[in-house]
Amino acid sequence: MKTTCSVQMLLCGDESGDRGFSLLEMIVVLAILSAVLGVAVKGMIEMQRRNTAENSKVDTVQETRDFVDQMVRDVHDVGYPPGRVVNNNPACDNNPNVACGLVQFSPTQIRYEGDLDGTGTVYQVWMQLLVPASGTCPCTLQRGVISKAAALGGAQPTYFAEVNGLLNSGDGAGGSLFGVTMPNGAAGYNIYTTADVFDAYFNDATQYVSPGGAYACNTVLDCSAIRSLQITANVAPTYADPTAKTYQVYSVTSKARLNN
Predict the structure, then answer these.
(1) For residue 38, is pLDDT > 70?
(2) Burial bucket for residue 47 (CB in 10 Å: 0-12, 13-18, 19+)
(3) Between the CA of residue 87 and those of 95, 97, 124, what are the distances in Å?
């Protein structure tokens, strides 16, 4: 009998006292492993959310800064070649080879003309605030370029540069044109709406007002009084802070003087 147990130890049991885990011990081990894995997985998810939020902040600020810098570069080329040089012809409205400078301005839209690449081709730059179907911001700021010849023919530019998450939509008089509705009902962001996206100033640095008392101009003659432009973008990232559940707002602004 002793020999039989030596051969069939797994069936008879270990006479030395060694044995496997009991069911209760297995349950306890599995519970501990589940708790440890739960903490680890939760930490990984939180880290991923934090990383996504931080990347969103960086991308938003960089996107906005690139857009603002591009506008400043454009403004420095506005009005070249000017009407007073090309054929001594100041009447440039319908001349595709002459840049009239600033041709349209409002707190949410501007259009200006210039030789942007030094080739002699006159382009129109269109910048505008695009409001989503909801009728509230966050909105999108767009920039598009088209040759003046094509614009005179009725064509419109393709917008290929954008800033997303824009909160401000000032009307030039201290109010705002659109409210703000943030995801998940986050509140308190309407304080950023009153800043004008675009501001214009006379030569003495006072705010531009048209002869009719409006904060806008739609003719080359009226817009010719504007000597400098300013852009302001109050932007919020796509993702909220995973801990505070709020959206950190960044303000980027720059001012450039027209050369024409």
Answers:
(1) yes
(2) exposed
(3) 11, 10, 20
